[in-house]
Amino acid sequence: MSENVIHECIGSIPKDIKIVVVDNSNNKSFKNEIEKKYNNVRCILSENNIGMGAGNNYGLSEIDTDYGFILNPDVILRNDTIEELILASKKISTFSIISPIMENKNYPNYKISKEDNSINKEDEPFKVKSVDGFAMLLNISRLNKLENFKNKKYFDENIFLYLENDDLCKRILKNDEKIYIVPKSKINHLGAKAVDEKYKYEIELSRNWHWVWSKFYFNKKHYGFLNAYIKVCPIFISATLKMLLYFFTNKRKKEIYLFRMLGFVNAALGKKSFYRPKINN
Fold first, then answer.
1. In this predicted model, what pLDDT tens digit does every residue of 170-196 receive, in sequence order?
2. CA of 73: how far to CAs of 52, 60, 193, in Å?
3. CB-based contacts of 268: which residues, under 8 Å, 6+ apart?
4. Does the N terminus or the C terminus of the chain have fewer Cβ atoms within 10 A?
5. H or E stretch including 52?
6. 18-48 per-residue burial string, b: 16 or more CB within 10 A, e: under 16
7. In which residue ranges of the chain is pLDDT below 70?
8. Domain 52-193 is in which class?
């Protein structure tokens, strides 16, 4: 689905850096095309859609370096993005994750604690509570020393979509590890442009299902079932009312809210995040 943007992403990465592209499909023609076009790229196929977190784990299992830089295909780097990350890593004594920052300040790719006063200089790295998963550099050698990551499953593979990065960051902080944003290292995230227009509605249904499922699962995992129910049940009630409102007047909106309801029901019943968008590669 990301063939229309991945070339711009790869083109923004220095050619002396080895790249592993994980394609959640069995699209051999895409693999052949991408490996033929770029000497520094190896494409591996998961054969079926295993999700964001599992795809990231798969890619990280295929490298033998101390660090792994995770990028979504709709992220564009500046000429000095990676250089600034490297410079920042030398200034920081310990870290488990460092990330570049979004060029558009209206859409920050990080969250900070209310009590955190570490943001004191615009050009200095600062500690954060979590970073978005579309661009993050993992200190693999450090994570592998932690008990929770010795199996090298950095991302929770129960999560198909949404909050897999929040879950990773939360588990890292529980180990008293640090996460940083590097203000001098900048990226541009194209967002939904990674999705082909012909799949837009099917992807929208999938997003609504998994958004609610993952929200319930994440809260249940870290705070317990009751907390998850209290936090996510209002979304289920709202979706039910809107589904009924649009039942006879707008088929698409009715289905979107129905999928939100189904995401909640399946998560509350403890079922896996089984829904997959119906897409033919």
1. 999 999 999 999 999 999 988 755 556
2. 12, 16, 10
3. 216, 228, 229
4. C
5. helix 52-61
6. ebebbbbbebeebbeebeeebeebbbebbee
7. 1-3, 115-121, 192-197, 279-281
8. alpha beta
